Amino acid sequence: MSFVPPELVLCILEHGYYTSLHTPNYTLLKAAALVCKTWSGPAQTLLFRYATKLTQHNIPIFLAALLSSAGRGKPLGECTRILEISIGGTSNGGLGCSPDDFVILLQACPQLYELALSVIGVHEFEEDILKKLREVGKKLKALALVQCGLQSPILFQLLKIWNNVQFLKIEKEIAAWPWRTAATPVLRRNADAEEMVQRPGAEVRLYELALSRFPTSDVLSWLLESSADSLRILELRDTPGPVHRSILSLHAPRLRSLRLAHYNNYSAALLRMCTALEELVIYHVPTHFPLVPDLPPTIEHLSFRNPNHTYRNTLQPIIEAVDALPNLKVLTCDKNAEQLVGDYEILKAKCGIKGTDIIVSNMPFWVYEDPVKVHRFPRTRSVSNFDAMF
């Protein structure tokens, strides 16, 4: 196989890069790296692209590979675009890396684009660590905070030093306040407008925000302070109550994509504000609240799931939505929709008449898409996004 050009080898490996669960196929890439020298380079390039689940056990091995030599290790570090790491501890009770090792890892991965971070047992970063992180995270565009303490200020610490972040996922509840530092006194319960003005919001200009749980209204306002003209994708896995909806109303008219885990009267109220929406993603078939009255006619991609834990025996709300959307170009569903044979055949016929493509996706709802800016929806995980992650 050594006679195959490296460019063609890379194309072959990229074709099999993702498993059926849309995670990197490490088994394939490790095997390909052992075939011959011609295959080793392209395979290692893809193998190190996404470094996942780094803990105290495998961090030394990973670092040893990156720091082995300037000729071999350095290029591998420059290949790394996505890093998933635990600091302090891990979710299964193991040990993560230390803050110092975290800095060394980021130094060895100068082209890092996306960071998924779990922080367990560490309340906050020391100032000397933050100074080092400020330098090594300059190219970071996507941050996912997977775990941290309820009152931990780590999210605010990182966003203050990494104001180039455009894609933010928060998977834990945040009860801390961004202003609670040694230099800033605690905000009074009945703070006046002048006192609030003295507490500036985040400087990050977010393109995408994904929230598993809503933070307090003060924190949400702080997060979105500089994103009025930039926020285009919003994902909510919690119900948007009146207070949060009031804050999001400033951004809703410019949203291009809205993803909702729960569709109810609160979600519908937010949807009505999204007058320029191109994509709506819902994670179940809504039956208690009809979709049609609240759908913006601008929607081009409608995605729904019918997962086992909220299984519905009808697709009628989706069929009605297809009829009601004049600009619908793509409809995405999961395989459970195909099991409702009668409704699915009607849905296919409606889409055929309308010229709407149907995509049956097997990507689990807990897997996030690539954090890249979108020209046209749907967006997914794909090797075609690699060039955009720089």
Percentage of β-strand residues? 5-15%
* Total E-strand runs: 12
Give unreliable regions as ranges: none
Can you give the mean pLDDT?
A: 88
Q: Decide which structural class fits the backbone.
A: alpha/beta
Continuous helix count: 15
Query: What is the H-and-E element order?
Result: HHHEHHEHEHEHEHEHEHEHEEHEHHE
Strand order of the largest sheet: 1-2-3-4-5-6-7-8-9-10-11-12
* Terminal CA distance: 31 Å
The largest pleated sheet is described as: 12 strands, parallel
As a whole number of angstroms, the C-alpha radius of gyration is 23 Å
Helix content: 25-40%
Q: What global shape is seen?
A: globular
Tell me what the structure shows.
The chain has a twelve-stranded parallel beta sheet with strand order 1-2-3-4-5-6-7-8-9-10-11-12. α6 (about 100-110) packs parallel to α7 (about 125-135) and α13 (about 315-325) packs parallel to α15 (about 340-355). β2 (about 80-85), α6 (about 100-110) and β3 (about 115-120) form a beta-alpha-beta unit. It is globular. The model has no long low-confidence stretch (mean pLDDT about 90). The chain has helices spanning about 5-15, 25-35, 35-45, 60-65, 75-80, 100-110, 125-135, 155-160, 195, 215-225, 240-250, 265-275, 315-325, 335-340, 340-355; strands at about 50-55, 80-85, 115-120, 140-145, 165-170, 210, 235, 255-260, 280, 300-305, 330-335, 355-360. The chain is α/β, with parallel strands linked by helices and about 400 residues long.
Give a short summary of the structure.
Helix content is about 35%, strand content about 15%. With about 400 residues, the chain is α/β, with parallel strands linked by helices. Helix 1 crosses helix 3 and helix 13 runs parallel beside helix 15.
